[in-house]
Records
---
Amino acid sequence: MKLDDRLLAVASCVPDGAYLADVGTDHAYLPLWLAKKGKLSGAVASDIHKAPLDSADKNIREAGFSALIHTVLTDGLQGLEDYPMTDIAIAGMGGLMIKGILEKAHFVRERHIRLILQPMQHIPDLRRYLYENGFAVTKELQATADGKFYQIICAVYDGISREYTEKDLLLGRYNIEHKTENAENFCRLCERQLDVLREKIKGLEKGSYDTRKEKALYQSIANEMKG
């Protein structure tokens, strides 16, 4: 079994011996790959749709991991409280959907479970939620698969609400503080945000709106690339 670079990046965040909850598991590729590598003590794979979960069940049985990986038909993390999970992966969903799943799962805070999040859209909104609601971002990384650029955010609840800037939301404070660790990906991240801001500024200027705030943010991100 092979994972694309997106899921390989997610898998790289799962520590040895983890009990993983894979939310929106689809075909259970992530927990199966980790199980075959001997990295899991156990796993629960959930999905809100029956058809992909049936496919996951079939893949798990054929791989011989039915005793290690359990499947649950459910919405997000609902009903998974009794599983001894240490890590939760939520990949391939929108940032607002991930936020909604976490808001309903209070046990994530109580047990300080590690989160591995790969949002498809609304990434600044997800970062805002984590910063404001006591989650420490412990790592961020990026991956490219099929020509698309993906971001992965790892976090754990520590109860500390954090202040942030607009630049923190767009780039991620962790990425800014560790930009030399993978300068190429950081530059790609900055370039994507500069493209978005450039178009926003153009639109605002057409409507004769004040763009000083957006231009200052644009320059700040451009300076991060240079520094």
---
Amino acid sequence: MKFEDWEPIYQEIIRDMGYDRARDEYAAGLLSGLLYSTEPSRLAQVQRLEELIQGKDVLVCGNAPSLRAELNDVETSGYCIIAADGATAHLLDAGLAPHIIVTDLDGAVEQEIEASRRGAVMVVHAHGDNIEVVRTIVPQLNNIIGSTQTAPLENIHNFGGFTDGDRCVFLAMEFNAASVTLIGFDFNDDNVIPTKAKKLDWARRLIDVAIE
């Protein structure tokens, strides 16, 4: 997604959620600096995402409680598996290694570190609320690609999206997946706090935008 197309949506999101664009931009700059100082062997190139996704059937795994049961109903071989943050732990428990993890590092961090060591591409997202965790966890990861919801930088990308789940879908569409199947998503979860409920509503809306 071109940033000029994404920016009006982003502006609406931060107005609705009460977020600070300046903090998002600061976080993107911080992540950019960390990646510039990271050994090149621990970084991944955008071309790797294209290799994994283009023309492939993509299975996007969200972190809803239904994920475990839904995994039993899917023949995962042949899919490019993209995990949304905390879904990584459930996939590893099921003996599945995600090809790509889209994360803002507020979920199963230890499992994500392990998955990155096994070769998973880590699309790490920096925003105003995860500045400290980006600072501490990114140096422990491998196969890193940086992302932001603000204007992209030379080494920080904006593929579109807001929550980990909908950013997985934007990523799949950006690199021309043959199909996208979602499991582990519950946009109407009554057991979440109001802020999380608003995020789930935005995720639902943005997935519609991504696939239209």
---
Amino acid sequence: MLELTVMKTTACPSFFFDPAVNRREFLRAGALSLFGLGLPQMVQAQNNGRPKRAKACILLFMWGGPAQQDTWDMKPDAPADYRGEFRPIATTVPGLQICEHLPRLAQRAHQLSLIRSMTHNNVDHTKATHFLLTGKPPPVGAMSDDWPSYGAILSKLGRGHGPLPPFVSMMPVVPNGSPRFVEQSHGQGAGWLGPVYNPMRIDADASLPDYRVADFALSAELTPLRAGGRQQLLRTLDQQVRRLEAQAQLHAMQTHYERAFSLLAAPEVTRAFDLSQESPSLRERYGMNIHGQSVLQARRLVEAGVPIVTVFWPNDGITNVSVYWDTHNRNFIDLRERLCPVTDRAFSALLDDLDQRGMLDETLVVWTGEMGRTPRVGQSVVGGAGAGRDGRDHWGQVFTSVLAGGGVRGGAIHGSSDRYAAEPATNATQPADLAATIYQCLGVDPSMEIRDRLDRPVTLCDGQVITPLLR
């Protein structure tokens, strides 16, 4: 598959649009109809008589699988080898306790909705992500067979305005950050909907002093007139090549070039990616680290009109520690020192920042991983990767996802796990139910009919909206 990198430099990581498409796919994706619907039907399908609850979504994806019983679903009365080392602390919601290493979020619990009964049957990181990013079970085939992610659906629905793309994925690359398991995760892109709807992926480290997303500024040598000349040259070359040979992917490449020039020429794009416009104190509130500054970048993007931004937890390149939230060893050390403090700071700062800007009611924030961790410390499971004496293995049977902002009731708890945090005790919640709720909050009817690549009618989402969590 061809990957087009736009204006990539060695000095700073660039963004790139995911693989180009053949002409037939492009023409099909760019047709005036949506899944076989005309414009009036499209609008009706989106709204279905319901007011839009949120204009944008920021999805904070804690890749690796956070331990539910060591974060949001403490089990202080369980045996020691189940409850672990951490203590629960009180929150602003009477009766609700969370981990002692999430103190800022404890003070903002009245803004959060916790789903403590998430469940599915897959313990493979790269496959389980498909459940949480699409609401559908993972496919057997390649990533091109994936169900379209939330962002791809919103892109197809025509969400967003201005030159910025409708779907952005923050996936920073850092030195020594291998292995890059997150890049192999299913459900992160457009799947069978076609690569035209894949996200703009940002791989730059927003915490660096010289952070730039490619070169969103015309150099002194490249005037707007010369840029326009290069754009016209590309069109001319394209026409000549098309006469000479039917090169299947050229048209899609031209689309990406056109998009790149639009981004390059738009001052609002430059501003959206210029974190130096934020005060040093605000940047510190998010945390001067890769994740914290990525979350701040996500806020700036939705403020500039991007409908959905996914922020993947980065592999920070530190050796001899857990990779992402995948705490097979050093579970308590890494949660205490590296994982919980960073997410506590960034997530709480995002809530405050959105609220102070009057954006929280119109921005849905979702915090989730693709699974949880084993109930017992040191427990290994079939299909997992094992666990050391101080670690927890993969566990899909129960985990916690958190919602806040647009359309969501704060201070709510949906479902519960058993006394060992091993299975749902009440209101078992499938990823499809979370997906339906996300779509509902964004004003998209989860039961709308769409057409797959074989033009067969399929339902966008099979889950049930979790109505007790909605305002």
---
Amino acid sequence: MNIKSLLLGSAAALAAVSGAHAADAIVAAEPEPLEYVRICDAYGAGYFFIPGTETCLKIGGKVRTEGEWFSAYNPNTHFGTLWHTRAELQLQTATDTEYGPLKTNTEIRWDWQEGNATATNLLHASISLGGFLVGKEDSQFNVFTGYAGDVINDDVVYDGPYELNQITYNYDAGNGFTAVISVEDSNSGAGATGANGEDSHNHYAPDVVAGAGFKSGAWSFKVVGGYDSIVEEGAIKARVDADFGAFSAFLMGGWNTDGDKLNKYAGSNGGGDAAGIGWGDWAVWGGVGVPVNDKLKWNLQLAYTDSKIFAATTNVKWNPVKNLLIEPEVSYTNWDSIKEDQWAGILRFQRSF
């Protein structure tokens, strides 16, 4: 056998072996198409499309830790330092519809207190569409007027209820005029009582809140009223805000339809000996905020009631870097009707995202 025959024979053998094993060759799978997260800026900063959907999602929250000395709400609380830590997670969604954005708001709060006391709370959970909102949010008696001042202890003098279920309609004319009407949970389930201990068993009528406001330039005015269907009394608040650039200020007054009774909208935030002391016939709040620079702001709030509660709070809000807040605050409360007073302080650290 010559060299040429040997080479041809070897090539034929190799071809035969290759053909026999061709079916066993490993073929790489086609890669799945990769869908990148798309920014959704139609509803504000932070929203992005959930992959594969037309729903936009925003994730936010905060982590907070603070030391507290005494309590501005209770003259009988005399602790040295109470350390409190909180985490909150907020999920907001929005989808465009023929009736406007369909939105949800969900917020969960976890608290850890000294002494291993823990708590979990579904703070907010609501659905909104076309101006209507249904679910759990703070009472519109507070939300519509913008709560009180930019201080931690802003409601030592009670300014209204917070978390409750509601059906609300908000109207915005687009020219500065706004209005709200809300049917709110009266908390009349088994064992519930009114603000003065009224029996609410088999009581099914809801509470009602209604308000209107107008904003023009640096000035805004809002008025809101709430009716407590269990107590069958209510309250009205009116508020004026002004922003002068170098500082902002507000003045808010409240009137109780029966100063001898508490109701959900003119109640009491006091503890200990101060428990049950409400507005009387009226209450007033006022405050000022002064931005020192883009990282530092000073705030002051004062409040006084017909029942002779005086509350004063001042703080400094310092943001050394974006989304980090360091906030020392000092409060003084005097309950003249029981001849007691209290100094209190808070040092808060908060990271928002």
